[in-house]
Amino acid sequence: MKNILIITGGCIEKWDDVRGHTNLATGSIGTYLSNELSNYDFNIYYLSGYTSKQPNPLDNIKDKQTFLGIVDLRDKAKAIILQHDIDIVIMSAAGSDWIFDYIEDKETGEILDNNNKISSDIVPVVHLKKAPKVLKLFKEWKKDLFVVGFKLETEDIIERALKRMKSSDVDVMIANHANSLQNHGVHHHIITRENDVIEAHNKKETAQQLSKLLNEKFNS
């Protein structure tokens, strides 16, 4: 049986022990995917955001872990891929664009120690830096991986998904609108290397169509 890693949900980038920034991803697409893939002969490994929705208990979910921020996601995904000889990665998580750099007191300019809770008496200025791009790393870790990515955009959705698909060496790209974070009924477009485009009308149908595609490719 082929081994699939589903990565889903949102990242939390900590500023101190109790605060941070995040995005609006809930991990719902991951739950749909695990349910649909369980109908086929796959071993499922599940890596989800700290506050994400969790899948139903299923016999073929072999391991479940959570991540906090994008660096934690990267490190845990690499370990799972190499330790469990993963064949397919579905990267549906909403990765962070920026991560914490440092925080300073607005009035004094003093750089604050973020290893504990920063006092609420001050006005902080939070400095961010670019986050690492994880999607393109998967095949650097394991060359024969089959990688499915998601590209969230507000315009030129398919064109931008194709561009990211090429730059990140992805085998299938799911193009979806930013509205899909909070709306299960938004259309998704499943794009293959052969430039086939399968339209799905909601998240559940996206999971059904993608699972069927993967089963036909790896189990037929």
TrEMBL record:
Coiled-coil annotated residue ranges, if any: none
DNA/pantothenate metabolism flavoprotein C-terminal domain location: 2-214
UniProt cross-references to InterPro entries, sorted A to Z: CoaB-like_sf, DNA/pantothenate-metab_flavo_C
Superkingdom of this protein's organism: Bacteria
Gene3D superfamilies given in the database record: CoaB-like (3.40.50.10300)
Entry protein name: DNA/pantothenate metabolism flavoprotein C-terminal domain-containing protein
Organism: Staphylococcus succinus
